[in-house]
């Protein structure tokens, strides 16, 4: 493989409009069956519309996760950023109430999106007012933070299936100093498989955000800090342990997948999901990553606990294999 050659894996775009898919019960194929012995990571795509307009959907998500923690063996919950729409107290109240349903039951990882800040320059957010650092440190998976007392950049140590993982969650458009910190954290935990969470990384055309490419990629995180391609070059590709990158942010046709080879020959699966432009901000659809008991296969599904429906088109339901 050449230095930047990608594995030729692309998921087909759906023939039916993305917004319509969310109105159809189990469109396309049959729902993938649950495999006994699997371990689930529940992923919350951008919840900004729920925080502002439809709090019942936010609470439906976390209520279902809490209730299903044993039957679906949920190891942790990962939020992809844009917890709120306008970084306003009433929206953070909704988010805090929703996540309170998980406290003491399922550990969770938070990421900040561009909507969770006042602006890029100040990086001022109310996140730490509503989610206290001292409380988050009590979670059994919490490993540490870039800045003591701030949750924008953290890492978490979690057992998922048959493997020990490190989940590194970085701010929207991570600054160079944050990227250096993340490199150091991953270098200290080479005995674990690596997962990176950041709000803006992959675009809907299954390529990483890249301000130098000339492709039309709206709302690039480069103005904040490092974009997706910069994070790949400076961080992700360098670590033998890296296996998964999760991101959101792309509100229109917000689905993407890319598999790339790292410097050590390891395959890194990069996934993007964001349902916010669909009916009522996404109708409470979750992305569920189910790590099967064979230790290699990851099954991806989309499920709405509010509708009790799934999405089974090729971009919402698929599998990939870890090295």
Fold and architecture overview:
It contains 8 helices and 14 strands. The two termini are 16 Å apart. Helix 3 (55-67) runs parallel beside helix 4 (89-100). The protein has 323 residues and is an alpha/beta fold. Strands 1, 2, 3, 11, 12, 13 and 14 form a 7-stranded mixed beta sheet that branches. Strands 4-5-6-7-8-10-9 form a 7-stranded mixed beta sheet, with helices on one face. Helix content is 19%, strand content 25%. The radius of gyration is 18 Å and the shape is globular. The protein has a single domain (18-30, 39-321), classed as 4-Layer Sandwich (Purple Acid Phosphatase, chain A, domain 2). It has helices spanning 18-21, 48-52, 55-67, 89-100, 127-130, 133-137, 176-187, 228-234; strands spanning 39-44, 74-79, 108-109, 142-145, 154-160, 163-170, 193-198, 242-247, 254-261, 267-274, 286-291, 297-304, 309-311, 318-321.
Q: Strand content of the residues, in percent?
A: 25-35%
Averaged pLDDT, please? 91
Q: How much helical structure, as a percent, in the residues? A: 10-25%
Structural class: alpha/beta
What are the secondary-structure elements, in order, as H or E?
A: HEHHEHEHHEEEHEHEEEEEEE
Provide the fold topology.
Layout: H1 18-21, E1 39-44, H2 48-52, H3 55-67, E2 74-79, H4 89-100, E3 108-109, H5 127-130, H6 133-137, E4 142-145, E5 154-160, E6 163-170, H7 176-187, E7 193-198, H8 228-234, E8 242-247, E9 254-261, E10 267-274, E11 286-291, E12 297-304, E13 309-311, E14 318-321
Parallel strand pairs: 1-2, 2-3, 6-7, 7-8, 8-10
Antiparallel strand pairs: 1-11, 4-5, 5-6, 9-10, 11-12, 12-13, 12-14
Helix pairs in contact: 3-4
